[in-house]
Design goal:
Layout lengths: L5 E6 L10 H12 L5 E6 L11 E4 L4 H14 L1 H7 L3 E5 L1 H4 L4 E4 L2 E4 L6 E18 L8 E13 L7 E5 L7 E2 L1 E3 L2 E4 L5 H4 L1 H12 L10 H18 L1
Parallel strand pairs: 1-2, 1-3, 3-4, 4-12
Antiparallel strand pairs: 5-6, 7-8, 7-9, 9-10, 11-12
GO molecular function: carbon-nitrogen ligase activity on lipid II; glutaminase activity; transferase activity
Pathway: Cell wall biogenesis; peptidoglycan biosynthesis
EC number: 6.3.5.13, 3.5.1.2
């Protein structure tokens, strides 16, 4: 960790905060504190400098205009690039996932991304709305992904990143894969919030941030019930 406390930064909540993505910060903080870790959560607005010494950075979803403005300000700020160079964890959701790549479209205009992940996003023929599920890259050692998607983009991965998951329901990147990861950077189209629906993914980010090989187990009865309920709903819809 970068200090005695685990520092979690929620980037630009005034621009990038749709579908309850603030819940990702809450889940990370709670799961860390349940294990006795001191935690500091910083909400950094778009008119503030981004600290470059935190452990985990969260970038949420947003509409086209705020997404483009957020990318511009993050590029001008440079703090997230410095943090990544120092080994910090970055988790992007939906619009936040797209802007981690080389380019994305907002209001019909191609915009420059942060170029932190080898991917680019454009517009699909139809909007992807509904349950999202997939089998996560086995190298990450996680159970299947579950979430909710609502986006008009299609994301194309380059050779320097790996898909987070292979689609079993929904669209994700392109109907075949969902999300992407490289090193300690990970992005997904999954809302829900993503880390409430996928607590093992939250723990992966905590392990990356702390350097721990394993974390003490937690009581996940309620999140397991939620996951099972949504997975059953997906299965029923496909039957």
């Amino acid at each position: 960790m970068s200090s005695e406390s685990l520092r979690i930064v929620w980037i630009y909540p005034d621009l990038l905060s749709t579908y309850g993505d603030r819940g990702n910060a809450l889940i990370l903080a709670r799961r860390a504190r349940q294990r006795g870790m001191p935690v500091e959560v910083l909400e950094v607005r778009s008119d503030e400098r981004l600290p470059a010494t935190a452990d985990i950075y969260l970038v949420g979803g947003g509409e086209d205009g705020p997404q483009a403005l957020g990318a511009q300000r993050l590029l001008a700020d440079g703090g997230l690039h410095r943090a990544v160079a120092q080994g910090s964890v970055v988790f992007g959701v939906c619009a936040g996932y797209q802007l981690l790549g080389t380019s994305f479209f907002a209001k019909g205009v191609q915009c420059r991304g942060l170029e932190l992940l080898d991917l680019q996003s454009d517009r699909g023929e139809s909007r992807a709305v509904g349950e999202l599920a997939g089998e996560i890259d086995p190298r990450l050692g996680l159970p299947p992904l579950t979430g909710f998607e609502n986006h008009g983009g299609r994301t194309h991965l380059g050779p320097e990143v790996s898909p987070l998951a292979r689609i079993t329901a929904g669209v994700g990147n392109d109907g075949a894969t969902e999300g992407a990861w490289r090193g300690k950077l990970l992005g997904t189209y999954s809302h829900g919030p993503a880390l409430a629906r996928n607590p093992a993914l939250a723990d992966l980010l905590l392990r990356w941030a702390t350097g721990a090989h394993q974390l003490p187990p937690l009581e996940d009865t309620w999140s397991d019930r939620l996951r099972n309920e949504r997975r059953s709903a997906v299965a029923a819809a496909r039957a």
